[in-house]
Amino acid sequence: MKFLKLFFFLFFGSLSTNLFADWPNWRGPHFNGSAVEDGSYPAKFSKTENIKWMVDLQGPSASTPIVLGDRVFLSGTQLASGKNPNPALIAMCLDRNNGKVLWSKKAGSGYQPGSGDGSTLQLDSRSNYSSPSPVVSEKHAVFFYGNGDLVCFDLHGKILWQRNIQRDYGDFCFQWTFSASPLLYNGQLYLPILQRDEKVHNRGLEGAESFLLCMDLSTGNTIWKHTRNTPARKESREAFSTIIPHQGNLIVVGGDFLTAHRPNDGQEIWRWGTWNTGHKQEWWRLVPSPVFGLGKILVCAPKNAPVYAVSPPQSGQGVSLSWSTSNNKDLTSDVPTPLFYNDHFFVLSDLRKNLTQVNPADGSVNWKIDLPGKYKWRSSPTAVDGKIYLMNHNAEVLVVSASDGKVLNSAKMGDAYDDQTRSSIALSDGELFIRTNKKLYCIQ
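RESULT FIELD:
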């Protein structure tokens, strides 16, 4: 009997982080914004209805809550106060059962280009260094920040290693505060630094290169660094997108091109582009990440430009454009990453204030709804249980039927004058994790 108890403890205990449907990165378990279909998810909720727990946060952040088993991981900021006179970048781990903070660590080194004093958490008023989302494995929680700090903890909050990408490879060349979430794939850590090749606001290095970085998850040491060349100019070289794995390759978008790379050495396999003909546009930084569905990779060109569906190479054929929305000016996205769910793409347009269901085969539209209010809708949509969840800058959350676009609920989760709320809604084991500027809600 003792042997059987020990067997069950070792076997099921080792799988404890798999007993929940996890949300291990900001686009979820499938890297496309959809969750594991593991039961019913709430449609009706508010600040006072169907709340499992709520936690006050120390400062705003655009990062998405990350869920692994019975833990929730969160990047954040600690604003200056009487108790804490110095602002800080923090990494947190909460108990998903009750919201109790299991550990909270100051994660930033304080590295600032040109100062190094750690006196601010941002370069501009629209965001802060805590915008990238963490990524987790069964033993590691990795936090990246826009000042270049990269910190790996074990699940109990012990720092395993840390480094600063700017210190290692030169100060970033970005117009705005840099944000790109890292990728964990096949036990290795990947990070894109797609930047301009000249100083901006007296920051960065002349001749700086854009590159992809692969690191050992156990040590943080660089395995390879691959230079990603582009003829794009000025801000059009900059991208805030995340690397997405697809069919064993790494898919990267930015610098006016979509590229695929080998995970073992970063070498480019194929390239498609450009939407910036003749590279005439110098101010087309790119924010949305690529998303894959039914043989198509969806790419959103910036600032009112079309959405493109690209077919990767198959059976010896080259990469090709399947369709674009050049003839549909309403179908565009400047900031939100599209969702793929139930065999359809869902494009959230922050510029047109609409949500559209799109057929992957030809780009035709099944339904489109206009979004309410004066605030921008920029949190990338997520979906499960036939429902789509999206949130605007004021932390108003809409629940939309994926089948017909009917609005099932509208809940104002933020404070009256909240703005710049950008976190995506994480979905796990029948629960929603909604981050506003000041609070984290778990809704059941």
